[in-house]
Q: What sequence folds into this?
């Protein structure tokens, strides 16, 4: 019997390697009507080709959806480095499920994504940022209209973005509980998949993710995450590993693919969302310290530059009685 609806989701992370700032794991979830096989989800770049493409320099002005590393700009020519990424993330939110959604600050965005406001974690994350933050508001409205028009008539009934984020203190607490570095993003990925399974108990689900830590085999970890379900290996090789979770209502197929953002539109959009969320957190951090230490170049939190930044703010941390372990990851 044909499946009435496919939930096609992609999961990706940003901030796995840095010294400071959050690790963010995002999910992009598409509900698609029709007889969709979870082993062969539709190519959303093709389905939405009137509105989306892979390049930030599209002559038709379409919305670029790709790995965030390929879309972050250099800031030359007066354009904000995050303009293309912000345009893609925010315009994708205004589809069927929430066409009247109005977000005016990053605090409202975080709440919509299911992320606690970072100000709850530390003083240096205080104060919201107005959005759109990086791209022109008029250009964003055009992109929103393009996305809605392309989605209508193509069986796409909704799109949802969700995030999970851990700051340095939470990562360090996890390390103290015995978790290793690779297990932390995996635990957040599993939370996304479990939430999807609970949200859509009778719909077929395809979850696509990047290969985790370069490994090929995931069956044992998935069995621990879904102990009540029957699991099967569908495919395992050096490029891709695919598994079926036989739930009571409908199957859930999950894949882990090398450079999966090239194959799966939802992974690419999840990559952009994770990056955008992390950059907003870091913008708050940089603003807080720049108000207290001058001159101070902002940091993205990666190891070499993060050490430079810490050296420059160390006296300020001491003056406020802030332990460096609140900023710096142990793993």
A:
């Amino acid at each position: 019997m044909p499946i009435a609806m496919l939930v096609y989701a992609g999961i990706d992370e940003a901030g796995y390697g840095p010294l400071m700032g959050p690790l963010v794991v995002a999910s992009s979830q598409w509900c698609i009507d029709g007889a969709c096989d979870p082993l062969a989800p539709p190519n959303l770049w093709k389905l939405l080709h009137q509105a989306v493409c892979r390049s930030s320099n599209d002559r038709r002005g379409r919305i670029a959806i790709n790995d965030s590393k390929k879309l972050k700009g250099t800031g030359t020519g007066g354009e904000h480095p995050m303009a293309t990424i912000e345009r893609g993330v925010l315009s994708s939110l205004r589809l069927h499920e929430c066409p009247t959604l109005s977000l005016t600050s990053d605090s409202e965005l975080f709440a919509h994504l299911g992320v606690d406001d970072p100000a709850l974690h530390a003083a240096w994350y205080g104060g919201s940022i107005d959005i759109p933050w990086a791209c022109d508001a008029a250009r964003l409205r055009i992109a929103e209209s393009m996305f809605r028009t392309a989605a209508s008539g193509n069986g796409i009934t909704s799109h949802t973005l969700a995030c999970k984020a851990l700051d340095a203190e939470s990562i360090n607490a996890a390390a103290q509980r015995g978790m290793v570095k690779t297990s932390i993003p995996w635990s957040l990925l599993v939370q996304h998949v479990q939430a999807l399974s609970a949200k859509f108990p009778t719909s077929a689900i395809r979850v696509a993710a990047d290969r985790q830590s370069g490994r090929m085999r995931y069956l044992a970890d998935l069995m621990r995450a879904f102990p009540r379900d029957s699991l099967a290996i569908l495919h395992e090789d050096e490029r891709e590993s695919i598994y079926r979770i036989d739930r009571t209502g409908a199957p859930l197929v999950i894949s882990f693919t090398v450079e999966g953002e090239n194959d799966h539109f939802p992974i690419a959009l999840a990559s952009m969302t994770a990056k955008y969320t992390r950059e907003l957190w870091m913008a708050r951090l940089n603003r807080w310290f720049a108000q207290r230490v001058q001159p101070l170049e902002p940091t993205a939190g990666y190891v070499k530059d993060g050490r430079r930044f810490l050296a420059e703010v160390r006296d300020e941390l001491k003056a406020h009685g802030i332990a460096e372990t609140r900023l710096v990851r142990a793993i």
Residues 51 and 216 are 35 Å apart (CA to CA).
